[in-house]
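Lab notebook: predicted structure, single chain.

Context: the supervisor wants predicted structures on file for every construct in the current expression panel, including those that have not yet been purified. This is the next one on the list. No modifications to the sequence; it matches the entry in the shared construct table.
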Amino acid sequence: SPSSTSLATTASTEIVANPDFAFEAAFALPDDVVAQFHYPISTESTEAQHWFDTGLTHMANFNHDEAIAAFRQAQAADADCAMCYWGEALSFGSNINAPYDANRGAAGRLAANAALARLEGASEIETALIQAVDARYTVSAEGTVAEDAEGFADAMDSAALQFPTDTFILSLAAEANMDTQPWNYWQPGSRLPLGRTERTLALLEDALAINPDHAPSIHLYIHVTESSIDPYRAEAYADTLWQQSLGVGHLVHMPSHIYLRLGRWKKAHAANIAAIAADEAYIAGSDNAGFYGAVYYPHNVHFVVASSQFAGDAATAQAMSAKLGAIVALNPDMSEPYSEHVAASQIFTDLLYGTDEAVLARPEPAAAHVYMRMAWHYARGTVFARRGELDAAHAELAALGSLTEAPAYDAYAPEMGIPLPTILKVANLTLKARLMAADGDLTGAIATMEEAVESESAIPYFEPTWWYYPTRQTLGLYLLQDGQLDRAEREFYRTLIKAPNNAYALYGLAETFRAKGDAASETYARELFSRAWMGEDGTLPDLNQL
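Prediction complete. Output recorded below exactly as produced.
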């Protein structure tokens, strides 16, 4: 079967090459949903206004291909509508989840030209927006179209200064600033913003001061703050977005980016189950769900798996892992780093909640899938270590270490957005420590896990996390088993700072207090654990799962 990536590429290319395809594929949304994204433009056509608003809704939902389809339907209703072409031009650009693509950029330049040609009759606000998107796409003497992300952000900043009470423009300016530094908003481990982050926050906070319910601004505010050391600042807005019940999948899902960071597992579950339902209804009814269906829909399922793992909900983790297996199809002949990150959660779920036989029965991933092979060797080595089959475990450790020599390894370079070199180091050190612990060398296991924790701290923020669990909790376990109870307590606390409400860390903390004879603290830790734990009644974590 074709891979999710190839499906996405095919759908997106058809939209660029065939304008009629987008027109035919335009997906209608309920009027009450579209009404929440209404922005009046210069047109006498109510149909053009409706499809423009529909495009804005899809755009806010990060469904840019479907937005293009809607904007083109708006153009069909009013061929003189400058903003209908502006929307198409904007949607063809890069975003925080998709880098600039030359083919899409060329189409965006054409749409920007069409908007410029229709400036007569445009309002002052519309003129500012069209001039900004014009600045986004530059053309060389040879006719090559490039994207000037900085220039576009500067132009949108100017528009925001010109119209400081327009929440639509404020959110667009914020996103333009974010697109200059996707997923890189904060100095590591610091409250200090990087680059344009301070300006982005000011724009979004201004917009939300004007309208605390403004969904596009909440969406972006969650993305900017989730990777900070204070994600709590977005919690109230996440609740607001969840309560809006917008019915478009990615916006329904977005509160869970904060809920997962704060350990609100049940809310994260609910948001993503609702998002899955919304996306499945959309995919079933749209001819244009290629990229969105291949990337954003599995992302929701992946989130349910991740939140289930932190809470010990084995049944849900296994059910959603099986669902991922059905919807994420990898092409065996090519590396697919992001899709492999999603698909690998099936292996980690088997390791946490399945049988040893299930882990060992998984077929060897294709040579091109280095990320999957990392997870596969690590899981097999972990199983062999806990079974005491140390020779077999060492063989898996050696295979894990050799992946840096794999021909496909360079496809996962950090500049491609996939920090596989660091993830491999964490996997290697963690498996090595598990082998040492299985062989009775807790001193070596502790020292090695300290290295793993240090390496994990260098992995950039992502949700769900690039590495499937906080390695610090394993360090806490080995310190507990070695009788270093004060240090164990400290490491479990430190785990909970980065992963609040983590049921496994809370259980480790309770066990540490029990070993220390601190009954009051143990009782409190067990109460917190019982609130976080979503496993079947009467079940407790296996310490080996830490």
